[in-house]
Amino acid sequence: MVPSLLFEVMLIGLLGIGSQWIAWRYRMPAIVVMSITGLLAGPILGVLNPEEDFGSLYSPIISVAVAIILFEGSLNLSFKELRGLGKPVFRISTVGAFIAWILGSLTAHYVAGLSWAVAFVIGGLFIVTGPTVIMPLLRQSKLNPRPAKILKWEGIIVDPIGALLAVFAFEIISFITADDPDGTKLFLFFAASLFAILFGWACGRGIGWMFETGHIPEFLKSPAVVIVVILCFTGADEIMHETGLLSVTAMGITLANMGISSISDMRHFKENISILLISTIFIMLTASLQLETLLQIFSPNIIGYVILMMFIVRPLSIFLSTIGTKLSFNEKALVGWIAPRGIVALTVSGYFAEVLQEAGYEDAGILTTLTFGLVFFTVLAHGFSIGWLAKKLNLSMEGKPGTLIVGANKFTMELGKSLQKAGLPVIIVDSSWERLRQVREAGLNFYHGNMLSEQTEYNLDTIPYEYLLAATDDRAYNSLICTTFMPEYGRTNVFKVSPFVEGKNTNAEIVSKVGGRILFDKQFSMDDLNDKLNNRYIFRQTTLTAQYNYKQYVADKDPSTVFLYLIKPSGQLKFYSEEMRTVPTVGDTIVSLTPPNKEKAKIQAKLETKRNNNGN
């Protein structure tokens, strides 16, 4: 029985999201898992062949998906991110792209054996990296902000430029080889490119203005943006092929820099769609490949071409284009190595393979094989090496899980000190210099500012911190913090102190249900925790053993003890909460806030009284 198209759509989605889950569960590069899954389902096992089964719908589906993915990526390109990075990003996106085009074209001609015409077309296309491959890598590997931002900006900006370079090279070749050269097509190319940028800017400004003036209701904002993105892409692409990518990029950057208050909600929605599209499109593209194409990539000329592109062309273009910038050697080395090719390279090369063959260039028949070879090997090499290389070059934020604490007070300061003592990164954020004074004196990392302000969003690097604790005296503010940052940190990594305060619980039930897990236990409010410290409660670490297990540990504790967090032998950190499901086991270290030894407390109290009397 031949499966229906509906079944195939379901299977593609299931394989795509399943690949993402496997990658997350076993800490593998998602693009590698998706590529291998697609190859297994398509040319190897013959379960899927989306290009054949979808027919004429295949190309439009891929094109629209790429447009939405590219728009979602460009929606994150705020110019404020470029502080101190504008020069290297500009140089890599212009000078670096040109060098990569020339060197890549020479390599395609002399090593892959392509004619000059086909070599220059494909050389322009292969400068792309793109958000479809860069974003999953950045999501998986915790790079330092500088190289991460450079790779993100390059991937999104150069994506449409690469496609346009291929079109430009084709138009130049057509002009030079024509019996009766006519410059009209070249003029139309530049005019269409300019129109695409202006059209994208107009779409961005238009939809942004409608958002700001309330002409679009809240529930229609995200659907409206999706439709306008498709309109923006199609409108430009109908005039000249591949200019649609430039148009949606311009639209996304325009919206990202308009300062629209609802842009963050839209960004989260678009990110979710983007992940779904990347997952399914990778499966569709790799499953549509022919087995012959898969076998051809192991031919010597293609392998030689891929090796030179990875080890010579890419590093050389980055090092030459960043001369005179403030990038360190390690940053140049990392950026010079990471350049996986993805969906745009595969889709556009298929288009040009057909166009060039129709124009009489028979050697264009190997473009699909050549492109897939570059995509497959770069995805594998860069996907598995980015984390390792970043650590070797000291450009990785990977390490022990960090904690960002919002609210400076006695308890959060002591909690921060205990986390720091355990070797875990911690930072305390507060808008009051007075409240931060003791934090500074204790030698803890801190940030002065409102956690919800736009300035904090751009200036505070949150990458090293896996957990967020809202621990201010304002219960509603704590809930608002958790609600705001839940999409970024994840539902299980955002906590707030208990909103329940004796005699003041009018709105506590409502506040407790808004965003974030309740830290420790709902009976311990911020006041209770600070009071315990004032009563000389102390932070105590206990490591469980086979002789002293968790059950014995709990039985020995005073009822007023607050269980704070535990650290597993692997370094994993877990905060206690009402929803905590993990049962501590042998080897785990538990940190708790416990009553002091009474004799020691009396001696300490006498010493403090004596010091106070001497001071008077």
From TrEMBL:
Protein name stated in the entry: Cation:proton antiporter
Residues passing through the membrane, by range: 6-24, 31-48, 54-77, 89-110, 116-138, 150-174, 186-207, 242-260, 272-290, 302-322, 334-353, 365-390
Signal peptide (from-to): none
Taxonomy of the source species: Bacteria, Bacillati, Bacillota, Bacilli, Bacillales
PANTHER family given in the database record: NA(+)/H(+) ANTIPORTER 1 (PTHR32507), NA(+)_H(+) ANTIPORTER 2-RELATED (PTHR32507:SF0)
Compartments, as annotated in UniProt: Cell membrane
Gene3D superfamilies: 1.20.1530.20, NAD(P)-binding Rossmann-like Domain
Organism expressing this protein natively: Oceanobacillus kapialis
UniProt keyword terms in alphabetical order: Antiport, Cell membrane, Ion transport, Membrane, Transmembrane, Transmembrane helix, Transport
Membrane topology per record: Multi-pass membrane protein
Pfam families: Na_H_Exchanger (PF00999), TrkA_N (PF02254)
Span of domain RCK N-terminal: 404-484
Residue ranges annotated for the Cation/H+ exchanger transmembrane domain, each copy included: 22-392
